[in-house]
Amino acid sequence: MEELMRELLGEVKSIKKTVMAIEQQVGAIEQRVGAMEQRLDKLECRAENIEEQLQETNQIAKALLHQNEVQKAQLDALSNAVARAEGDIKSIRVDLHAVEAITAKNWNDIVLLKAVE
User: Fold this and answer.
1) Which parts of the chain register pLDDT below 50?
2) pTM above the 0.70 mark?
3) Which residues form a coiled coil (predicted)?
């Protein structure tokens, strides 16, 4: 009986050693999981920062597109104003030629009138 007790005691000690080894392995695994969680937290933080930067970049891009559209509209308005001014200048040039021709005729008439006297 005593031998059986010793055998059982030996088995219990062996089981305790095995349990302790398993507990150490579990502890090591828990540490590794903890380290992985920390790394994952850092990655999540970096991803959030990247998302914020992307949103800011998108807002800047939208603002630049809007500004580009405004400038295009202003350029179109300026082009229209230049075209109107060009038309006005051509009209004034035609009128000026007519005034010049009438003035020349008037001078011719004045010369004829002076010659009659």
Assistant:
1) none
2) no
3) 5-95
